[in-house]
Amino acid sequence: MQIDQDIVKTECYSKDGKIVDQWLHTQIYEGNPSTVEVDKSLGNGTNFRPDIVMIVLDSVSSTQARRSLPRTLSYLETQMGGMHFHHLNKVGENTSPNAYAMLLGWRIYSANRKAVNAKDLRPDHDKICSGWRDKDPVIFREYEKIGIPKFLLHWSCEASHDLPNPLYHTDQDYLNFFQKNKAILDNAFLFVMGDHGPRFGTPSKAELNKREINNPLLHISLPKFLRNHTQLIKNLQENSIRLLTQFDVHATLVDLLKVR
Ligand SMILES: [Zn+2]
């Protein structure tokens, strides 16, 4: 049976009508993608193609960022049209599987999908840490080929990898950075995100940590000239409350590659 939803709640009843079991099942429903036509006259002529800026905060979850970076996220949302994507789910335990998915669209582990009546998924690549990836289709190399003005990938570990609490101390610094560089970032697709949630320094049995470890931060700001695009904003708002993975982030980056 195929169910065209990401989240399915099941309940089993006894003969006298009492619930004897209930569970929430999750899957990624592969539906038809929506497409958006962008009026190029909205851009600034020859400099139509926006930059791509990705700031990855290692081990930072969605709700942790809400607690630790309130001024930064508030500024992105109120001054830069930022949108918070609440249900990004990691695809593997640590950095590697999530980075491969996000930057190459590659799966490095197999996946058993019998529970959702689908074929098992095989790894696209299983020799991680075995050489440079320069000749592989890493997403920023693909942007380089078409001459995107700038592709910035900043992957920060110091403030958040080993312990979750120091992230609080960076809120003002990140706010200052975005304020100082607003004019540049107004012509960019800006991704502020995690790769997975906090893995160290938290009570691993705490219910909140069990949820946060799977749910990395994803915050996207559009270039200024697209922030009033009705259909695009509607699509983003719908996706902001859907179950997503880093494969969706990669698919988005591939889509942006096609903007000409
Ligand atoms: Zn990581």
UniProtKB/TrEMBL annotation:
Domain of life: Eukaryota
InterPro entries hit by this protein: DUF229
Organism: Mesorhabditis belari
Cellular-component GO terms for this entry: extracellular space
Record-given protein name: Uncharacterized protein
